[in-house]
Amino acid sequence: MSIADQAMASGLKALNRFAGADVVDRIGLREPAEKLLYRATRNGFQAANAAGRTFAAAQKVASPARQSKPRARDVFDLTPTDEQQMIVEAFGDFAETKLRSIASDADAACKAPQEVLSQANELGVAALGVPEELGGPFEERSAVTNALLTETLAHGDPGLAVAVLAPSAVSSAISLWGDADQQSTYLPEFTGENPPAAALAMLEPKALFDPFELDTKARRVGSDFVIDGVKSLVPRAEHAELFVIAAELEGSGPALFIIEAKADGVLFEPEPAMGIRAAGTGRLKLDAVRVPQTALLAEGSADAYAQCVRLGRLGWCALASGTARAILDHLKTYVNERKAFGEPISHRQAVAFTVANIAIEAEGMRLLTLRAAGLADRGTDDAEFARVTGLARRICSQKGMQIGSDGVQMLGGHGFTKEYPEERWYRDLRAAGLMEGALLV
Amino acid sequence: MPISLEIPKKMKVLQDQAHQVAAEVLRPISRKYDLAEHEYPKELDMLAALIDGMNDSGGQGASAAGDAASKKPETEEKPDDGAAKNGANLAGVLGVTEMCWGDVGLLLTMPRQGLGNSAIAAVASDEQKERFEGKWAAMAITEPEAGSDSAAIRTTAKLDGDEYVLNGEKIYVTSGDRADLIVVWASLDLDQGRAAIKSFVVERDNPGLKLDRLEHKLGIKASDTANFILTDCRVPKENLLGSPEIDTKKSFAGAMKTFDNTRPLVAGMAVGLAQACLEETRRILEEAGVEIDYDRPANAQSAATAEFLELESDYEAARLLMLEAAWMADNKKPNSVEASFSKAKAGRSGTDIALRCVALCGSIGYSEGELLEKWARVAKILDIFEGTQQIQLLVIARQLLGLTSAELK
Q1: ipTM metric
Q2: What's the structural domain count of chain A?
C-alpha cells in the first residue's frame, strides 16, 4: 500500500502539511539569525505575556474528544508505520536543514527565531496531539510517534526542539485530560494558522525535586482556585500565552491547572541555564493567581498526573536519544578525518572503542524509550509503563551524559570550543536527567 | 503496524515452559554441580530427552544454546506479506534467557545441544546431517596461542588417501569430554591463512584424540571444559564440513557467520543471569525494608534503590538489544553490528550487575547460602566466550567507521 493510500486508510488529514518537502521548499533559506542579546541582567520578575490572546470557545463540543490508541499487532517489531516513517523523513529534513544550521546562534541568543517556530507550526507541530474532531491531523494518538518526532528534531538541535515542541505539550495535555469545555476553549487555537506559545510547567527550583511533592500550592477560595509557587526552566516563558502548571491541590494531591499568561499574578523572569538555551527558559512565579474551577484538568486525577509526569520524562528521553545519535553521526565523520601521529585517530582503539560504546548505549537508550512509549500507547499495564519509563529515564540521563562527555573528549581541545557542536550537546544533555514536564510524548 | 517491543503471546508460552524447566529442574541442582565440578549432571539426561521430543514435535521453547542458530527461521503458513516475523531466533534467545535464569553451566552442558551441533546444522551436507543426527557435538577452535584471533590456529589437517590427518592442540572445548563428536577447526595449508581453515568432525573415541585435562574454573563448573591433543588423528575425508576447496575470496566469512547467530544467544545467557540476580536482590532488599519506586526520582530515594534502578536499566537495555538482534535475524536483515551490540552490552552488564548485586546484599550475597555469589562468578565468562568484550567493540567499530582489520587493529 502506498503512503498516500495508507494515509487515506488511517484517516490522516492534512497529509500535505506533513509530507514536508513542499513546505520545506517554500520556507526557503533562513534570514540571518537575529542576534538578540538575552536579558541576562535580571530585572526581577515581570508580568508575563500580558498581551496574550483571550481564549474563548467559538463552538463547544458536547463531550471531550480523544484520539484513539494505535492498534497493536501481537508481534515484536521495530518497523515504523508508513505514517511514522513519513513524519521522521519530513521532520528529519527540517531538523537538518533548518535547526542544525541556526543552533549555535539560537543557543547564544537564548532564543528560537520566530521564523523557525512558524515553519514548525506550518508543519503542524502544535496540533499533533489534538483530536481529529477538533482539527488535529491524526486520528490516532501515539506516544511512539511523538517520541520518534522528538528524537528526530533533537538530532537537529535539542534546544530548538524543545522550543518547537513546547506548545504541543500543552495541547496534548488538554487533549488527553481536558473536558469538553476546556477542549473547546483552548484547542482550536492550536490548530489555527498562528498557534499560541505555550508551556507545560512542572519543575520547581529545588534540589531533589520530586514532581509528586510540589511546593506550588492551589487552594480553594469560593468557587475559584488560588495558586502560589515558582516554576523553573519553563520553555519560552516570556512568550507563552498559555500554561499548564503542576500544583499541589489542597487536600487532594498534585494536579494540573490551565493558566492563561495574562492572568493577574503570573510573573516571569529569564532563567538562562547551562543548556537548552534556544528554548528561552524562564522562571514563572505564580503570585496568588486566581483561576476558575474550570482550570483544573482531569478533576485532579492522580492517575492523569502520573501519566503526565511519565510522558514528560519520555519526551526528555527521546530528546537525549536523538542528541546521542547526533553525536555518534558527527563523531563517525570526525574521527575518520582527524589525523594524529600520521593516521586517522579512528585507527586507535581508544578512540574507535569509545565510538562503539556510544553506538551501543545510544541504541539502548532508543529502545528503552520506544518500549516505554509503546506501553503508554497500549495502556493496558500502568505499572509496567511506570517501571520501563523509570528505567528509560535512568539510562538516558546517565548514558546520555556519558555520551555528551565522550563526544567532547573525542574532539579534544576542539571539542571544548564553539567551533563544533559537541560542547553544546554536552550542555544540553545534562538536562535529560533533571527536567520534568515541558515536553510530552 | 505499530512498533512493539513486547514479547508476543505465542512466544510467552515458550518462555513460560522454559522458565518452568529452569525453576523445576535446573535451580534445584544449581549449587550441587557448582560444588561437584567435573561430575556429570545425570539429571539432565531426562531433560535432554524431553527437549528432543519437543524439538521433534516442532516446539522450541526450552531448547538450549546453539539450537536456534541451527534452525532455519520459522516460516509462517501464510504467504510473505512483508509483515515482521517472530521466528526461531527470537524463540532461541528467549529460551536461552529463561534457562540461564536457571543455570548457565547446566544449559551449556545440555546433551546434544553443543556449539558443534550448530556448526553441523549450519554447514553440513544432508548426508552428514543424517550421519551425525542425534549425536552431541562440541566445538574445538581455541588453541594455546590462538584465542580471539581464531584465524591464527596452528592445528593442521593433511589429506592422506581417504582420510585427513589432524595434528595440534585444542583448549577450552565446552562439553569436550561428554560429547560424542568434536568439531575441530584445522588448517589445510598454514601458508594460505584463514581461507584454508576448515572444520572436521572427530569422533570422541578416536584414538588420535587424547584428553589432556579438564579445566578448573571460576564458574560454569557444571559444564566441562576440556583440553585435547590431536596426534596423527585420522578422520574420514567425508567428515570435513563444507567445501574442501581453499577459496580465498570467501575467506573466513563463512566460518564466522555462525557467530552472527550465536552472539545474541550468549547475550541471552547474560540477560537471564542478570534477571536472576536482580530478582533475588530485589527480594533481599525488600526484606531489608528497601522500597523501589519507579515514579519518584532515584536521587530522592535510598542509595540502594538508586543503584538498583541503574542496574535494572542496564539489564533492560541489554535485553532489548538482544531482542532487536534476534528480530533482525528472523527478518533476514543483516545484523552483524546489532548482534555485537547485544553481546557487548549484555556481557559487560551481566558481570557488572551480578557483582554489584552481591555487594548490595552484603554477606548474604557473598556467602554460598544464596546463589548470588555463584552468578557473579559465572557472569565473567559471558563477557569472554563467543568473542570477548574487546572483540565485539572491534567488530562494531570497524563496521561503523568503515575500517579494515589492518586499519583498526
Answers
A1: 0.92
A2: 3
